[in-house]
Design goal:
With 266 residues, the protein is an alpha/beta fold. Helix content is 34%, strand content 15%. It has a seven-stranded mixed β-sheet, sandwiched between helices. Helix 6 (193-199) crosses helix 7 (213-228). The protein starts with 6 loop residues before the first strand and ends with a helix. 30% of the residues are buried.
């Protein structure tokens, strides 16, 4: 439509690119999110793939969860004297800009509470699927303009759901493969991801983290549905969470996604 949005383009670092991977982050994540999306968009070009990472509109009033920071060890308190100053109010804790979404009105700093409550979020939430569809369509138009040899949609978290929904709604015949990274269904959507993803029939890579009981159960449900539908190329890849080892975890994800991209689709 007429809505401007940010997308990050990274050309393949080879003479003959294999194709283009369009990346969709999860709700509250940026186009260069430091977990998953960012490492993939920067690493895949070294292995022959263009990457185009989109920013998606967030649901109204959504605040992205910040990763917990280790609490400092308490320092011994000095006895207070009558002449001592009262302790200063602690400054607000800082977070990386990508890890905390701004509340409505924070960006301008001029809106009052009443304006925040009556502004656009309700309207934006009502048209969220359509706005996301338009961004994916714009990315596909860009890929077609480049005459990319292969076009692949890769979604992380809720971005995986929006990728699946777009393919189910519009069925573009030039998207050849689909990758789901730790897929999650948005709370606002009723159509079950486990039913939608296998029904597409596209070669699909379903990457999930094995340590989570919920993730394992949902992955098993998606796999069972794909078997009942006799899906020709639905592959699940279990990943290790590696809590606290973010760099190692991201290297594992990039390696597994590369392996899936390079495998034949027949």
């Amino acid at each position: 439509g007429d809505e401007a949005f940010m997308a990050l383009w990274q050309p393949a670092n080879v003479a003959e690119p294999k194709g283009l991977v369009i990346l969709l982050p999860s709700t509250g994540e940026s186009a260069d999110w430091p977990r998953g999306i960012g490492p993939l968009r920067r690493s895949l070009p070294d292995h022959g793939w263009h990457t185009l990472s989109l920013s998606l509109p967030d649901s109204a009033h959504y605040i992205a969860p910040a990763e917990p920071e280790p609490e400092p060890e308490p320092e011994p308190e000095e006895p207070a004297s009558e002449d001592s100053e009262p302790p200063a109010e602690p400054e607000e804790a800082g977070y990386l800009p990508e890890e905390t979404a701004a509340l409505p009105g924070e960006l301008s700093g001029e809106q009052d509470d009443e304006t925040v409550e009556t502004a656009e979020p309700a309207k934006a939430a009502a048209g969220l699927p359509e706005r996301i569809d338009e961004r994916i369509a714009a990315a596909l138009d860009h890929a077609r303009g480049l005459q990319a040899k292969t076009i692949i949609l890769l979604g992380q978290g809720t971005g995986a759901y929006w990728a699946v929904r777009y393919l189910q709604q519009w069925a573009p015949d030039d998207v050849e493969r689909l990758a789901l990274i730790h897929p999650r269904q948005p709370d606002s959507q009723q159509e079950a991801l486990a039913q939608l993803a296998p029904s597409l029939g596209l070669p699909t890579g379903d990457f999930y983290y094995r340590e989570s009981d919920g993730a394992r159960k949902q992955a098993r449900e998606r796999l069972n549905v794909s078997r009942r539908m006799d899906h020709p190329a639905y592959h699940q890849i279990g990943l290790t969470e590696l809590t606290g080892e973010h760099k190692v975890r991201d290297e594992q994800l990039v390696r597994r996604v590369r392996g899936w991209l390079d495998r034949p689709t027949d």
